[in-house]
TrEMBL record:
Pfam families: Metallophos
Entries under PANTHER family matching the protein: METALLOPHOSPHOESTERASE, ZINC-DEPENDENT ENDOPOLYPHOSPHATASE
Record protein name field: Serine/threonine protein phosphatase
The organism of origin for this protein: Fundicoccus ignavus
Domain Calcineurin-like phosphoesterase: start-end pairs: 14-212
InterPro entries: Ap4A_hydrolase, Calcineurin-like_PHP, Metallo-depent_PP-like, Ser/Thr-sp_prot-phosphatase
SUPFAM superfamilies: Metallo-dependent phosphatases
GO BP, sorted A to Z: RNA decapping
Length: 244
């Protein structure tokens, strides 16, 4: 499922993984020009960070009021799977930071919600946030903007046509994408893997670039940076970095 951009806008502002770092997101948005730039998020709005509920609400507000494109990350995928089938999928989601997100959305602490059944947690979320499941289910997997493709985790570069990449790989792929030659003719902007891991240096939280692949998950939730790119249809014009 592909998102579609506002063709009247000649530039885009692409923001990396947020993971509940609401204050950093607000700081980053000061650099965005709403009247001339398409806002694009690469996914992973929730889990692990201190303010997932506020982040989710802000991202959704920007979508409703400014046409922001909110791509699907693996954490949105896990959250949706939990809502669809709480009995089978709660343990996996909770291990990956979902406990914090659910607690924040329900206005409870983690100790309290740990005493609730999985069914009750899902029911309470549906009651208090009736828009949530449908919103998550409609998040697109990628968007094209000029010479760029923006996707959460990456693409299957072994395929003749990158568009045939599975939805699973678009939110989960790592090493096979990072190391494979990019022959797509596109510049691929992605998040998912913290750039410290790609740089092999825990202090290097800036953008990673190799073979027309641009990594912009600066590991904000791990004490790194929130990253964003200002692009036109053909090139990166500026890289923004908000250090945590």
């Amino acid at each position: 499922m592909e998102a579609f951009v506002n063709n009247d806008l000649k530039e885009a502002f692409v923001i990396g993984d947020i993971h509940g770092m609401h204050t950093s997101l607000e700081e980053m948005l000061k650099n965005w020009k709403p009247n001339s730039q398409q806002l694009i998020f690469v996914g992973d709005y929730v889990d692990r960070g201190p303010n997932s509920a506020e982040t989710l609400n802000l991202v959704r507000q920007l979508q409703l009021e400014h046409g922001a494109i909110c791509l699907r990350g693996n954490h949105e995928e896990m959250f949706l799977a939990f809502l669809h089938n709480p009995i089978s999928n709660w343990a996996s989601y909770a291990r990956n930071g979902g406990m914090e997100t659910v607690a924040q959305l329900l206005g409870e602490n983690k100790q309290t919600i740990s005493q609730y059944s999985r069914i009750k947690l899902s029911r309470l979320l549906h009651e208090q946030h009736p828009w949530l499941e449908e919103w998550l289910s409609e998040l697109p997997y990628f968007v094209e903007f000029g010479d760029f493709v923006v996707v959460h985790a990456g693409l299957d570069l072994t395929l003749q046509d990158w568009r045939n990449t599975s939805s699973h790989d678009m939110v989960w792929i790592r090493q096979n994408f990072h190391e494979m030659a990019n022959k797509t003719g596109k510049i691929i902007i992605f998040g998912h893997t913290p750039t410290m891991n790609l740089h092999h240096d825990w202090n290097a939280t800036g953008m990673w670039h190799k073979d027309n692949k641009l990594g912009i998950d600066g590991g904000a939730v791990y004490g790194g940076s929130l990253l964003a790119l200002e692009i036109d249809h053909h090139q990166v014009k500026k890289v923004y970095q908000v250090k945590v």
